[in-house]
Design a protein that fits this description.
222 residues; 10 helices; mainly alpha
Length: 222
């Protein structure tokens, strides 16, 4: 069924696979199919709680907080505001005449759309906070960054694969990846002192994977 199931991906492959799935859902498949997938993904309602205790992941969130918050209506609003209209347009949804706020389904779709953009942004800018963390005496590499992204949202890639398979579109992503693999380089090697690698208590220098208080040397609340 799957060329490479998300549950058995090697860590260096994580960001590349996620990028391809994200772009296929966002840009390639028809919008009704995209909306159906968005309504059937895990973590949409609790992903911020899952990343909140990880300082590395939160650097991406805090860089552009507004892009991950569903725009709300105020008490005197007589129609949808420009941010709400832009999101409905992105989802190819038509607003009702006189509509002042999102419907429950529209809000859920917007939340899901914002959510799937987060791991894509995290992976695209994974090394940008390196200088800051180094100044704080913490170090990580690209593999450590991808590891912590995976550990906090482990079922996201398999769920995206499953949803694409349910509409018989997963093979399109696999075909593209198969063509790219011939020229793909090896992933970055693992190193000591990674930020965000391992389960709580796996060793000194691990930043941000364990829950708060999980181990004397786990600095998950930088």
């Amino acid at each position: 069924m799957f060329h490479v199931h998300g549950a058995v991906l090697q860590i260096p492959e994580y960001s590349g696979v996620y990028k391809d799935l994200h772009e296929h859902i966002r840009l390639v498949i028809e919008k009704p199919e995209m909306r159906s997938i968005l309504l059937n993904l895990p973590y949409v309602d609790d992903w911020l709680l899952r990343i909140a205790s990880n300082s590395l992941l939160m650097t991406t969130y805090n860089y552009n907080v507004k892009s991950y918050i569903v725009p709300t209506s105020n008490a005197i609003q007589t129609c949808l505001n420009k941010d709400q209209i832009a999101l409905l347009t992105e989802l190819h949804l038509v607003r009702a005449s006189g509509q002042k706020d999102f419907t429950a389904e529209q809000k859920q779709l917007v939340k899901a759309l914002q959510f799937i953009d987060f791991p894509r942004n995290r992976n695209a800018h994974r090394m940008e906070p390196f200088v800051y963390f180094r100044s704080e005496g913490q170090f990580y590499n690209s593999e450590g960054s991808e590891t912590v992204s995976y550990l906090r949202l482990p079922l996201l890639i398999p769920a995206m694969q499953k949803q694409l398979q349910s509409i018989r579109r997963l093979h399109e992503v696999q075909d593209v990846r198969h063509e790219d693999e011939a020229g793909a380089g090896a992933g970055a090697g693992a190193g000591a002192g990674l930020v965000g690698v391992g389960e709580p208590g796996d060793g000194a220098g691990v930043v941000g994977v364990g829950e708060p208080g999980a181990g004397a040397e786990d600095e998950s609340e930088l």
